[in-house]
Structure formats: C-alpha cells, structure tokens
ABC transporter ATP-binding protein
Amino acid sequence: MSLVINQLSKQIDHRTTLNQISFTIEPGQIVGVVGRNGVGKTTLFRTINGQYLADSGDVSIDGQVIATKPQLRTQLCFIDPLANFFKGATIKQIQWYYQTAYPNFNNAKFEQLLNRYHLTSKQKLRHFSKGTFGLFTIILSVATEAPYLFLDEPLDGLDVLIRKNILGILIDEVATGERSIVIASHNLVELEGVIDRALMLKNGQIVNDYQLETMRSNARKVQLVYRDKQIPAVVKQLGRIVHVSGRVIVVVFEDFNATVQAKLAATKPVFQEELPLSLADLFMANLTDEADFELLS
Ligand SMILES: Nc1ncnc2c1ncn2[C@@H]1O[C@H](COP(=O)(O)OP(=O)(O)OP(=O)(O)O)[C@@H](O)[C@H]1O
C-alpha cells in the first residue's frame, strides 16, 4: 500500500507555493520533508491532508484518489500544530473525537502512552507546555493507527528528553514496516538517525530525493594531511572540503569509488584517515546553494 502524491500544485495569494509536486511514500519509511522557513512544508501537508484544496494534481492510496473517496482520509493523520480549536478541550474529549473520526483508534495504546508520560485524561491542552503539547500530538497521531502520519516540526524547540521520547515512539511505530511517517523540518541535523529518506523542498518543488542508506554507503568523510598547505586541485574537484586547519583538511566525497581513491593516492597525502560520517556531512556535500546551509544549523 503506497501513498502517491501526483503533480500537486497550490497557489497562495497568487504565489505558486507548490508547483507540480510528485513523490511516493512506501510503508515502513520515515521520510523528512526538508526546506527553509516559509518554503511550503506546512502547505504541502495541509494540501495532502485536505485542509487546503489542491489547484491541480491529486493524492491517492493504492490507485484510489482520496478526493473522490473521503473514507480514505482515515488512512492519513496530520495534526496541524497551528490549529487552536482543541486547546480548550480535555484529553478525554479529544480522545472521543478521534475515536469517532478514526475507526481503528487504539484506546489501549493511547492510554498506555499517556500513562507512560504522566498525562491524565482530565488535563486541558491549553495547560500544556510546548513540549508536552508536542508529545501529546505524537501520542494522538500514533493512536489513530492511520498508516500515514504527517508531523510538522515535531522536534522544534523541545528539550533533549522530550525529543528522545518522541523519537522512541516514532521509531517503534515504523518498526512493523506497515506505517510511514513524514516529518517536516527546517533543520536536517535534528533528523539525524531518524529518517531513511529526505525530500528537499525548494521553490515549490522537490529538488532532491535522497535515499540515505545509498548516500551513506557511497559517501566517505576523509581527513587528509599534506606536506605543504596547498590543497591539491583534484581534492577540490572530487570532494567538498568541510574543514581546514593548517595542513589538515577534512573532505566529504559523495561518491567514493576506486577511481577517486586512486586519484587521491596520487596526491600523496602524508596522512589519510576515514572519519565517521554524519547526516550534516552528507548534506554539506550535496547542498550546492550557500543559502541552503541554514538547513544544517
Ligand atoms: N493560510 C495562509 N494564508 C496566507 N499565506 C499563507 C497561508 N498558508 C501559507 N501561507 C504562505 O505560504 C508560504 C509557505 O508557508 P508554509 O507555512 O507552508 O511554509 P513552511 O515551509 O511550513 O514554513 P516554516 O518552516 O516557517 O513552518 C509562506 O509564504 C506563507 O506565508
């Protein structure tokens, strides 16, 4: 069962925010939708989930277009963090509402997670801190048992402990291979160790679709030391220099194959060592536009 976003377009205030966006989400994936502030991540989620009407294009599950089969909406869950209409409600009232909307709502899971994080059914959302609200949103989303969850900046501004709790819940949820989670974020680094795939949103389009496992297996981060301070031209051509300190340089090679290794050996470094590669390193090697570096901060 896959979710297909097909040529989705949306104008807001006569500005094209989404321009014929297409991608497919397979079960068991955690996918990051990454882009700078204001690029249209929330608009994309709202349009996929039906809060905004698409100007053109459609969203389908297993070939069935959701707009023509409203019952398919229960396969998707997006709790808009800016929607304030539940703020005066108690957890119990929200549970009742979601049970009605989602036929497979899992009360046992919902209550077990509430207990685990010391939340009680009489609490009102408006009394929650930002972090508790974030955690509650995740608990509610996973309890819907919708196969496709959309989370908008779920980790933004949260402390380390709450982040860890949220990530633990999300990773458990995809472990069965049946659910998929799509996370919007303006910060790639906070998605380290979480996402399997990253879609980069820019100028209304998905400009890159990265499979991180493939990227990781092809890329290498290498520390090199040369006799003099001159960096060989071939190193600059083949890799992206991420750090220079005296005669020590650190380079990320996006596609580190035998040819690259041979060309590197020919530069005769006095020292060469492979370093652990982070998500930020991978993207440093790929983000060609200086303006995109904000995504790593
Ligand atoms: N309901 C609306 N009314 C007017 N403008 C809107 C509305 N929704 C989105 N926009 C505009 O569309 C553009 C994309 O906004 P959106 O919130 O989708 O971006 P984003 O990538 O989620 O940003 P952020 O990372 O800051 O949350 C922005 O210019 C925003 O001002």
Observations:
- The longest helix spans residues 160-174.
- The first strand starts at residue 3 and ends at 12.
- Residues 12-13, 17, 35, 37-43, 186 surround adenosine-5'-triphosphate (CB under 6 Å).
- Residues 82 and 152 are 10 Å apart (CA to CA).
